[in-house]
Specification:
A hairpin with a 2-residue loop joins strand 2 and strand 3. Helix 4 crosses helix 7 and helix 7 runs parallel beside helix 8. With 455 residues, the chain is an alpha/beta fold. The chain binds zinc ion.
């Protein structure tokens, strides 16, 4: 049998950790895609899932670690197609090491970093340098998006062929839309050559204007300039039509409004290759949660109306939304402490995604645990990566979760270098205790007890 590839995709970078040798004893192994849901001794040998054995069957290895899995769940680790690692340029907010440590703590084995850094990732040299740095520093597998346009200025395409050869996993101007329809059309034509997804932040900057939150009754009451739902939906409509024209493939980032979902549904029915993602904060919060003008809840796209939130949840359940992405967006505290209108947009999310969604959607019975796990790993399929799996023979990309453990967001600080989290102070249920990525243990909660088995 040939060795399984260590990473989910050849273009992903990760620093080499020691291959894991561990047994998670008496754990519920849940992998909805592989059809696995059983209590077992989950055995990892040399970084590969070797068996899902009968509990207590003596399949425990003669060396390595034994982890108590009773009352806990092991699931495929999560894949986040949309994070900001702020490197290069704002390493005071996040760097590759701290960002991927936050990812590991949240149960993620793979993240994709956006290109809106300083400088923008628009050259093969910078992209290659980042991948080399990630090979040394990244705890979990990292892919890098390359910019669609030079400097993300929206008027001239980057050299997509060179960037694809240098290991870009997708193209995105995230943070900004591709303003020119002509340039977007050219980007879709280039896709025939490189084959990588175009990952799109859909916004019409003229409609957003100086808006700081969703335009609706709450923004009127607060007297804060609003961003209408149409700002996202008109750009999404343009891009699905261009994708149809050029027979291209696009992925819409952080979909926030019911109208945008209607456009995705319409485009899919016409056979357009469009996928989309939603963030935990858009699923769980709405514009009413901004009434206190807490800048940790200022993001782009903004938290929409309660009706939009309901539509997003329905679309997640129905499968219209392909995957969950955090849009992890670290910001310096002093910048977030500015008045609401002036503060930068974004919330961190890697460390709270699973627990927040589990607490507010799975515990009340709105979403099944299996669907949540499936949607937190589906970002892999969207980007053409292999999906993490618990199937024997798979490289260990898994996390162990205690579903009953309660914790308060921020009580022990964050692994991320930034603390601007929209759920700060919330009491949540469900804690990631251990994460493996590319076959190595990359995270273990302080609370977890392990015992070494003598060789
Ligand atoms: Zn964005």
């Amino acid at each position: 049998m040939s060795e399984p590839a260590r990473t989910l995709h050849p273009a992903l970078a990760v620093s080499e950790g020691a291959p894991a040798n561990l047994t998670i004893a008496g754990v519920r192994a849940l992998d909805p895609v592989a059809g696995i849901d059983q209590v077992c001794d989950l055995v990892v040998r040399d970084g590969v899932v070797s068996s899902l054995a009968e509990p207590g069957s003596g399949a425990a290895p003669d060396s390595g670690e034994v982890v108590d899995g009773s009352g806990r769940v092991a699931v495929p680790a999560f894949v986040d197609p949309h994070v900001h690692l702020r490197t290069p340029g704002r390493e005071d907010e996040e760097d590759i090491e701290s960002g991927t440590r936050a990812a590991a703590a949240g149960g993620f084995c793979c993240v994709v970093a956006m290109a809106n850094t300083d400088p923008v990732v628009d050259s093969p040299e910078l992209l290659s340098a980042l991948r080399r740095r990630a090979d040394r520093e990244a705890r979990v597998q990292v892919g890098f998006a390359a910019a669609v346009t030079v400097g993300q200025r929206g008027d001239r395409l980057t050299d997509t062929t060179l960037l694809a050869d240098a290991g870009a996993v997708c193209f995105s101007d995230d943070g900004l839309p591709v303003r020119s329809a002509r340039v977007m059309r050219q980007a879709l034509q280039c896709q025939r050559l490189h084959g990588l997804p175009l990952v799109l932040h859909e916004e019409d900057p003229d409609l957003s204007g100086e808006g700081a939150m969703h335009e609706g009754t709450v923004s009127v009451r607060l007297g804060v300039a609003g961003i209408p739902w149409a700002s996202e939906a008109v750009m999404a409509a343009r891009d699905v039509l261009l994708a149809e024209l050029e027979d291209g493939r696009i992925h819409l980032q952080h979909v926030s409004s019911a109208r945008t979902l209607a456009i995705v549904e319409w485009a899919r029915a016409r056979g357009v290759a469009v996928t989309c993602e939603v963030t935990p904060h858009h699923l769980l919060l709405c514009d009413e949660d901004v009434a206190g003008l807490d800048t940790a809840r200022k993001m782009n796209p903004p938290l929409r109306s309660a009706g939009d939130r309901t539509a997003l949840r329905e679309a997640l359940r129905s499968g219209l939304i392909d995957c969950i992405a955090t849009d992890h967006a670290p910001h310096a505290q002093e910048e977030k402490e500015a008045p609401f209108e002036e503060a930068p947009m974004g919330t961190t999310g890697l460390e709270t995604a699973f627990a927040a969604l589990y607490t507010d959607l799975v515990v009340p019975g709105e979403l099944s645990l299996a669907t949540l796990v499936e949607k937190l790993t589906a970002g892999a399929s969207v980007l053409g990566f292999e999906r993490p799996s618990l199937k024997p023979g798979s490289v260990a990309n898994l996390c162990l979760v205690d579903l009953d453990k309660e914790w308060t967001v921020g009580e022990n600080g964050f692994e991320s270098r930034s603390a601007n989290n929209a759920f700060l102070g919330r009491r949540l249920r469900g804690k990631v205790l251990l994460t493996t990525s590319a076959g190595a243990v990359v995270w273990r909660d302080r609370s977890i007890l392990m015992r070494e088995v003598a060789a």
